Amino acid sequence: MRKFIEEILKEDFSEDFETIFQNSELLQYIDKKTNAITGNSKSRKNLGNIYAIYSILYFYNERFYNKPEEYKKFEGFEYTDLWNFCKKQYGGEKIQNHALNNRLNTEFANKIAKDPEKMLLIIDGSKYLMHIDYIYVNGIDISLSILKIIKKYIELLYEKDMKLIRDLDELIKEDNIDKKRNNIINLLDENSEARIFEIISFAVLKSYYKNEKIYIGKSLDNIKEEYLKLYKTGRTNANDGGIDFVMKPLGRFFQVTEVDNYDKYLLDMDKVLHFPITFVVKTNKKREVIEEELNQHILVKSGGMQTIINNYKNSIEEIITINELKIWLNELSVSDIDSIIKDIDLYYRIEMNMGLLGNDEE
Fold first, then answer.
1. Cβ atoms of residues 83 and 127 within 8 Å
2. Nearest alpha carbon to residue 139 among 54, 19, 51
3. Collapsing DSSP states into helix, strand and coil, what is residue 170?
4. In this structure, are 211 and 299 located in the same domain?
5. How are beta strands 121-124 and 127-130 bridged, if at all?
6. Contact yes or no for 104/26 (Cβ under 8 A)
7. Are residues 60 and 180 in the same domain?
8. Same-domain status, 28 and 57
9. Average pLDDT of the segment spanning 143-162
10. In whole angstroms, how far apart are CA 345 and each of 159, 163, 341, 356, 358?
11. What per-residue confidence (pLDDT) applies to 194?
């Protein structure tokens, strides 16, 4: 049980708090889904499912708190009201409606429910309500406590999200270039949150590659000098199967990934029909180690079939780890470091749907 959940349950149920928790599948589910504030780098916010629960219990409390017989006769809350409520919550403008379209039920049934046939959400056309057996524990309506828990989770998430903004504001004001550089290096940590690593790695690579130039043209008489440009293709953790960064004019694809799921590497290669990909890996391992581990994984997955092995090996353009990013950071100029900080600030604020620094002054 997470500490903030335990504190709320103790306040509401005194010495019975642990019994309430152990007998509530809904509380146990919420406990599992709120690991973004204390979990490791892979932890996601899971706001879709959390807000689906939050919206239903919010409207439930307005009309049916401690009124079980009345609630049993109720046919459900309108989808539009629930969805509008979700979208107004912190981070809610980015969520999709999958939770209200049965994703919540499926996950709850697979991971928590003792009786998978008893759906958490009862869906009847455009109307939704929560099964009463998950709202009451030993005859006690626990919905108010759940609302407190979700509200506290949102507050803690907000505080965590704002920490990087405050750190970046301080970095922008900092005059000491070594301190700026070291602070960025400290953010490049394999335990850092995945989206923060993606944004920082993009900012570093963008500044690093912009100092490299190639010569390109349609004919020998038309050769011109051109510097490399890196573009970010969308939000982090979008789950859209897309490529994270694209480089012009070479047309290189970059994918930011974790080190411990090599199946995902192969899936990324398949998605772009084996167009070569540069993998930016959130790890302190040497890239030679990652290359060897990935090659071994390809060998196992291929069953030794040479054509499959060749297809995957030829799809790996380069492996970049935290080690390379740190080396390149140390090679960059003062202006490059300032550009990196501004890019991190820009893309993190875009990720958080926040106003850009300095807009109020323009």
1. no
2. 19
3. helix
4. yes
5. antiparallel
6. no
7. no
8. yes
9. 93
10. 16, 12, 6, 8, 11
11. 82
Considering the domain architecture, whether residues 25 and 134 belong to the same structural domain is answered as yes
- As for how many domains the chain has, the answer is 2
- Tokens standing for residue 87: 């979208």
Instruction: Count Cβ atoms within 10 A of the Cβ of residue 63 and give its class: 0-12 exposed, 13-18 middle, 19 or more buried.
Output: exposed
Residue 353 carries which DSSP code?
T
Regarding whether 241 and 192 lie in a shared domain, the answer is yes
Q: Which residues contact 267 (CB under 8 A, 6 or more apart)?
A: none
> Residue 68: is the preceding peptide bond cis (ω within 30°)?
no
Which one of 100, 125, 158 terminates a domain? 158
Same domain? For 143 and 267 the reply is no
pLDDT digits (tens, 9 = 90+) for 114-133: 998 899 999 999 999 999 99
Q: Give the chain's largest Cα–Cα span.
A: 85
> Of 352, 330, 351, 353, whose CA–CA distance to 340 is shortest?
330
Q: Note whether residue 164 is domain-resident.
A: no
Q: Which residue has the higher pLDDT, 309 or 45?
A: 309
Residue-number span of the structural domain to which 14 is assigned:
3-158
Is the residue at 171 inside a domain? no
Give Rg (Cα) of the chain.
Answer: 25
Q: What is the DSSP letter of 249?
A: T
| Cβ neighbourhood burial of 139 (10 Å; 0-12, 13-18, 19+) | exposed
H or E stretch at 255? strand 252-257
Distances (CA, A) of 182 to 3, 165, 171, 219, 341: 33, 17, 11, 45, 12
Read off the pLDDT band of 198 (50, 70, 90). Answer: very high
